[in-house]
Amino acid sequence: MQISTPRILAVLLVSLLLTACGPNIYLANDFRAYAPKHKTVAILPAAVTMQLRPNQARNTSAEQMRDMEFKTGLDFQDRIYAWLLRRSSQRGYTVQFQDVMQTNSRLRESGIPFEELRAHSPQELAKLLGVDAVLTTSVRTNKPMSDGAALALGAASLLLGGGGYGGATNEANISVTIHESDAGKLLWKYDFVAAGSVGSSTEGVVNALMRNASKKFPYTPKS
User: Fold this and answer.
1) Residue 139 to residue 126: CA distance in whole angstroms
2) Is 122 helix (H, G, I), strand (E, B) or coil?
3) What is the crossing angle of helices 122-129 and 100-110, to 10°?
4) DSSP letter, residue 198
């Protein structure tokens, strides 16, 4: 039985949507001049922006949106930290990672609100946290990640006729950066796109992101 061309194209399209797009990577030319001096890196809460469809946005209050973005940002931070700890035990990264509980405690004590973190320079945050470099993550997504809050909002949206959050294909655009503490110089930047089922949860996105990023992570010892 012959398979029609439209069906083949549809299968190929679905396959593409269920994978993560290739990354773009930047590494400062003089990174090796900084690396030996770096002992500790702090992982900041991710800055998450959700760009919902109009019917979803109408049924989501500004407070609900901020809460979802805040919780998703903390989830990204925690999962990236856990991934790097696991991979460090295997590859022996040349730096340690500050415990995210300590990072967040110091941020709270500083009086800097979560939503204002990006108003402060990486250099300032690194000094505040007492680390040699900070790892920041920015996430832009068109659909809430699959957690309790998003599921609850999806149910509410269905009741209100908003169509829910579960049907649309999700895409997450992620940028991970490392800035050093002395002058705040950008040392490493990793841009990544996760789509389809990969982009539907923080776990799926972080697993796809870090599987790729860890291969190019700059604090890996030279072989």
Assistant:
1) 21
2) helix
3) 110
4) G
CA distances from 173 to 2, 16, 23, 124 (A): 38, 15, 10, 26
DSSP string, 83-107: HHHHHHHHH--SSEE--HHHHHHHH
Question: What integer is the mean pLDDT of 148-171?
Answer: 45
Count the alpha carbons within 13 Å of 95 in the hemisphere toward its beta carbon.
26
The domain segmentation of the chain, as residue ranges, is 21-216
pTM over 0.70: yes
Burial class (CB in 10 A: 0-12, 13-18, 19+), 13: exposed
Place of tokens 């996430």: 139
For 21-216, the fitting CATH number among 3.30.1490.20, 3.40.50.10610, 3.30.70.2740, 3.10.20.30 is 3.40.50.10610
Distance CA 2, CA 201 (A): 37
Residue identified by tokens 């108003």 is: 119
Which range (33-37, 45-49, 61-65) has the least confidence?
Answer: 61-65
Q: Which of 104 and 220 is assigned the larger pLDDT?
A: 104
What would the mean pLDDT of 105-121 be, rounded to a whole number? 91
